């Protein structure tokens, strides 16, 4: 079964996945009934989750920094995606692949930056290439580019995510260019 990362979650879909618990707390609703509110994360981002009618023993079994398997349905609430949970179960760390929860590694980031530079340096138009070189040779700019996400929550929402997005879009453009010979490859 393919892992469903936070960045791949969409509204109104079922979720049955393991996530890292970033935070959790019991809160009362308007009627004073307690519910469990959690922030769940993986290497691509984080999402809020709620389990209605929870009890204190469940709260105590879930620890921040631990893993849980959750079942539920995603929904948009006040413009943000969240998971309404039907089930939460702690998962032992030995049953989890830690790579699913670690941000982009420096090695992978360096590979993406090198690939980005390689693609941009293949631009043949001398004016566009000179412009691109201004960015590629600006160490301060490239260091900052390597740290930013592409989006705040869902879209490559992790440090280095913008570089991953740029490389993906450039690779897509390179594959599309031969299909449209009238389109200027450098501008694409």
Please give the CATH architecture of the largest domain: Beta Barrel
Instruction: Give the C-level CATH assignment of the largest domain.
Output: Mainly Beta
Unreliable runs = none
Number of helices: 5
| Topology-level CATH name of the largest domain | OB fold (Dihydrolipoamide Acetyltransferase, E2P)
Walkthrough of the structure:
The chain is of the alpha+beta class and 188 residues long. It has 2 domains: 95 residues, Nucleic acid-binding proteins (OB fold (Dihydrolipoamide Acetyltransferase, E2P)); 74 residues, no CATH class. Helix content is 29%, strand content 29%. The chain has a 5-stranded mixed barrel with strand order 1-2-3-5-4. A hairpin with a 2-residue loop joins strand 2 and strand 3. Helix 2 packs parallel to helix 5. 18% of the residues are buried.
């Amino acid at each position: 079964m393919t892992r469903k990362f936070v960045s791949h979650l969409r509204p109104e879909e079922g979720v049955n996945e393991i996530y890292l618990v970033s935070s959790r707390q019991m809160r009362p609703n308007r009627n004073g009934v307690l519910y469990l509110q959690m922030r769940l994360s993986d290497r691509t981002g984080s999402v809020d989750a709620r389990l209605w009618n929870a009890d204190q023993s469940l709260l105590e079994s879930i620890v921040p920094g631990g893993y849980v398997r959750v079942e539920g349905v995603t929904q948009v609430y006040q413009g943000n995606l969240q998971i309404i949970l039907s089930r939460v179960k702690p998962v032992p760390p030995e049953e989890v692949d830690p790579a699913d929860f670690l941000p982009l590694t420096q090695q992978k980031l360096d590979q993406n930056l090198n690939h980005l530079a390689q693609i941009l340096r293949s631009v043949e138009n001398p004016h566009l290439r000179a412009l691109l070189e201004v960015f590629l040779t600006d160490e301060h700019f490239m260091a900052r580019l390597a740290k930013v996400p592409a989006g705040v929550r869902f879209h490559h929402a992790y440090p280095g995510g913008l570089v991953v997005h740029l490389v993906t879009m450039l690779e897509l453009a390179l594959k599309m260019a031969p299909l449209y010979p009238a389109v200027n490859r450098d501008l694409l």
